[in-house]
Amino acid sequence: MDAGKHVDMDLRTDTDMRDLGRRVREAREAAEVSQDEARRVIGVSQPTYSRIESGDRLLKGDELVQLADRFGVRASVITGLPAVRARARFAARTDGGHSPMDEMKERLFAYLELDSYLTSQGIPGSPR
Hints:
Distance between the termini: 39 Å
Structural class: mainly alpha
CATH topology: 434 Repressor (Amino-terminal Domain)
Number of strands: 0
Radius of gyration: 17 Å
Order of helices and strands: HHHHHH
Helix content: 55-70%
């Protein structure tokens, strides 16, 4: 019985990895970036990058951020995790014009998306 549960968990993880690889490939293609350019952005070999897109190698947190930046997408597009934006709430005072708050919100969304991805991969945050 336990062996069956273990196999199911492995299949789910394999499926998640393949889905992640597919989303990396789709984001790369939509940005019209070659595999060679993408692999240079994250500093890996061509075979390693191919393994990321095929779902045979996990995408590391720093690689996620670098690829999302190069592809011009949010990290949540690649991870497939629900957008943090939909769950975040802010309170601030502004003069009604464009404020640094808009830029700070975008940066915060990016950090929260990365934290969400790392947490989903079992990578804990730093101790406080």
